[in-house]
Amino acid sequence: PQGAEEAKAFVNAFLKHSMPKKKDEAIQDILTRKAVVLEHYSKKKTKQKRKKTKGLTAKQRREMRLFEIEPEQQRYALFLPLHELWKQYIRDLCHGLKPDVQPHVVQAKLLKADLHGAIVTVTKSKCPSYVGITGIILQEFKHVFKIITKEDKLKVVPKLNNVFSLETDGFISYIYGSKFQLRASERSAKKFKLKGTIDL
Predict the structure, then answer these.
(1) 120 pairs with which residues across the strands?
(2) Where in the cell is it found (predicted)?
(3) pTM here?
(4) pLDDT at 194
């Protein structure tokens, strides 16, 4: 059994620990009233900041050759099913491409549509060697299209200074590459002007 002095020391130590913000005089004042309300102080937990997972840099992507198409996969026939899927996607996007549909409505939809799988032809170019290239768009970047031709050749065609034609169920649309220098993701959110200068 504890003596009076030990009990007193224990109570003082206990109260000091339980009420760390109070001074000794204040604790003694509380004891004389014989009414003690113990306070609980929880330690503030420091929130750990979540580290954002950093994506690969452009240099790392190039080194890993993520966007390169292997030579054995560079075959036109392999991508014909992709073209069929793209046609169905455009029909759904333009509500069927009916004969009575307004051309400017289809044109506005195509400006924001995903072109992976579309068959395009270079109709005009400041570089004559590009004119006549026809094929399926395999990849669209900010400044170039990667196109696979019927001869199973992968062509990298710049958008700048080129005009592309795109045919869908008899509806022919023209893409002026100089005005089209955007990534597919950026293009879907861009507001295109209805009127503007048209040039190569």
Answers:
(1) 135, 166
(2) Nucleus, Nucleolus
(3) 0.65
(4) 55
